[in-house]
Design goal:
Elements lengths: L1 E2 L2 H21 L6 E7 L3 H17 L2 E7 L5 H12 L6 E4 L9 H7 L11 H8 L8 H12 L8 E5 L6 H9 L8 E5 L6 H6 L3 E4 L16 E5 L3 E4 L7 E4 L4 H4 L3 E4 L6 H17 L4
Parallel strand pairs: 1-11, 2-3, 2-4, 5-6, 5-7, 7-8, 8-11
Antiparallel strand pairs: 9-10
This protein binds guanine.
Length: 291
């Protein structure tokens, strides 16, 4: 069993990006600049956004964090986005999700300028990605693809089962894994809350990508010997053994499932750090206007 080390791989990618930034600056270019909008005080979002800002500093990007109160109106948020859309100094913009219930997420995502949509959530980017045209690829699925690539995992003709159909992970990774590309060219089955026989479907998977947000959902009786497991879940569960009183676990029961796996991502230290590295990569791409 080989651990897919997202921490190390993401550090390699960040080093590569930092070198590219040095070259950009030497050639008279400017620092890539990422703006993030954080609405309200959701603890998890707070953690994710500060990790993104920290990562920008690490690779030599500029970053701007815009905090808006929980009760900000949809119109005010759209106005903030419009200002950033028109700011030539800012290359990439993310609006951290989820948003408060009174704000229409789809409308907000649609407002972000397509060429600054480094989350790759805009319908234009999703459409171009689906058609294998140049686009921003959402960061978490892009991180999964990058891990499969850097560990040279064979995906061609493999049975790939994706659990979860979120717009952020499940849906886009199912598209990417079925595209005529490497990594890709898999035979993809997307299962979700209305699917039947999930266990049987999972047992057929050569590659199992789990993104449903339920701690330890996948148990060893659900996988076949030699499976490659990508665990996107991150749930805090109470713990007596940590100072904080909680620890992070994935959607996969790592203890059991790793024994049957050829490759597996740990939680933490698997897909999570890759997401941030790929967001930086998208921002670099945006700054070079290459899409
Ligand atoms: N919430 C959870 N994941 C993400 C992400 O990748 N981007 C944004 N903007 N919000 C998220």
């Amino acid at each position: 069993m080989i651990i897919l080390d997202g921490k190390k791989t993401s550090n390699d990618i960040k080093d590569e990006i930092a070198k590219e930034v040095d070259v950009l600056l030497l050639n008279g270019g400017k620092k890539p600049h990422l703006a993030a909008i954080l609405v309200g005080d959701n603890g998890a979002s707070e953690t994710y956004v500060s990790a993104k800002v920290k990562a920008c500093n690490r690779v030599g990007f500029n970053s701007t964090l815009i905090r808006l109160p929980e009760n900000v109106s949809e119109e005010q948020l759209i106005e903030e986005i419009s200002v950033i859309n028109q700011n030539d100094d800012i290359d990439g913009l993310i609006v951290q999700l989820p948003l408060p219930n009174h704000i229409d997420e789809k409308k907000i995502v649609n407002t972000i300028e397509v060429n600054k949509d480094v989350d790759g959530f805009h319908p234009m980017n999703i459409g171009n990605m689906t058609l294998n045209l140049p686009s921003f690829i959402p960061a978490t699925p892009a991180g999964i693809i990058e891990l499969l690539d850097r560990y040279s995992i064979d995906t061609v003709g493999k049975s790939c089962v994706v659990i979860g159909r979120s717009h952020i992970v499940g849906l886009p990774i199912s598209i990417l894994m079925s595209r005529n590309n490497y990594p890709g060219n898999s035979t993809v089955t997307l299962v979700h809350s209305r699917s039947k026989n999930i266990k049987d479907i999972c047992r057929n998977a050569d590659i199992l990508i789990v993104a449903l947000g339920k701690a330890n959902f996948v148990t060893s009786d659900m996988v076949k010997e030699g499976v490659c497991v990508i665990d996107v879940g991150i749930t805090r569960i109470p713990s007596d053994t940590t100072k904080s009183g909680w620890r992070l676990v994935g959607d996969v029961d790592f203890q059991q499932v790793s024994k049957k796996s050829s490759y597996i991502t740990p939680v933490p230290g698997g897909v999570g750090p890759m997401t941030i590295a790929m967001l930086l990569k998208n921002t670099l791409l945006a700054s070079k206007s290459k899409i």
